[in-house]
Amino acid sequence: MKKRFLHILFLFLISSLSKSYAQCTVKNILVKVNSTATAGSSCILNFDFTFTIENNGGNKYIYIHSWLQSQYPNHFGCPNMAGNLKAPLAADLALSKINLGIYNDIHAGHPIPTLLTTYGPDPTVALTPATELIRQVFPSGDSARFTIKGVQITVPMACSQAAFMTADFWSTQSQNGNVVHCVSCNNQFVIDPQVFGLVNCFTPRTYNIIIRSVSPNVISGHYKIYTDNPLNGNIIGTFGPEDTLVDEHDYQTVLGTFNQYLATNMEYEPYSFTKPAADRNLWAVVQTNGYSNSVLGYLINSCAPLSSLLRSFEVSYANNKTLLNWDINPEAGVVAFDVEKRIDMSTYNTIATVPVNTDGFTSSGNRYQYTDIVTKASHTLYYRLNMLMEDGQRKYSEVRLIQLAPNADVAIYPNPARGNVFVSVPVAMGPANIIMADLSGKIMRQWNGVAQKTLMLDQVTPGVYIMKIKPQNGLQEITRKIVVY
Questions:
Q1: Per residue in 118-146, pLDDT tens?
Q2: CATH level 3 topology of 194-231+240-300
């Protein structure tokens, strides 16, 4: 089955319709398509649907209906609606593709809104399947944002075509829907362009974004990037006012194999190197010139979380000396670093204390270094930082190692890896060129002159890969497998 990801965001504002209705405002409608599948001449769409509605006395029950634009019946007669509106029944909804209902009456016995399983005005109408409902009440208390997840519909068109839709919203206080209190209708939107991308595992973080259109013509506009901050402390994957704007740019597609815009290694400072934003996924909201809607895309951050204390920690060895370099986040709250060393299988011992932002061992800015003179013959040297915090606690860094034995093996860890991997080449082998290839032999990455180094695995699809380590001094090539997840 053919699958793709489409996303859409559009805004509209409806004021009071007439004195006989409660004030009705609906805005910020988002559709995030999770998957599509071809079923004969039709397309099955699975998506999340989000909208914001003003809190009022007339939305105890909220209903949403949507049609293909060419089949929209305009049941409520927008924009010139009558004073006594009737809820749509089965005959009115014969061609509708979306029929959703929400029981929004909050009280002690019903503390959260729920999806309805029966359409009150006409129980013969089948409501559209969905898996979850999330509601967020805005701090002002005058409106609430609803996200309905896992909505699934079938439309009579190819999955490669843009779906032009029209939606109606209405609400009532009556369980059977015999009184319509609020209506927002004839809201048109188009599902185009597609937006997708990912977060690159660099320090600082960067992102790639692709904006791809099914239009035969070049499109242009503006996009904004937001960090996906948790909702209510732990819910992610829901776009809303809790998310933080971190970058924005204009765009224009280029015609080719695809009609698309591509941007790579885009920085989103000052947030891309600051926790917790550096570890979070990103939302992309794309506005296209000439479109009444915007499009929403999700950029996955598959990187291993950055240390909350260190941005980097590397070691290198030459001429009986080990050079340690590290970079600290300025807000980490570290008072001093104890440099600890272990020789072969012995215990760790403190060999130096490096204070923060003082003379002595400290280099410029937030970067630090220490040189260890190696005088004792050994097979492997292990180094770590024992960090003293402002509150008196101590925290350890990752371990870095130097392999001195002539027959020592190449160390690759962690394995399985995600985001980045540390490689240590035995000193006797000397610097090596490393090639990372998939199982078919296709080269994915290449690094030259590696002794001890953290290798970035950004944009590498999860799977099994081969690492070929070729010493520059002509020694025999070493091959190792690595799993990326």
A1: 999 999 999 999 999 988 887 777 788 89
A2: Immunoglobulin-like (2.60.40)
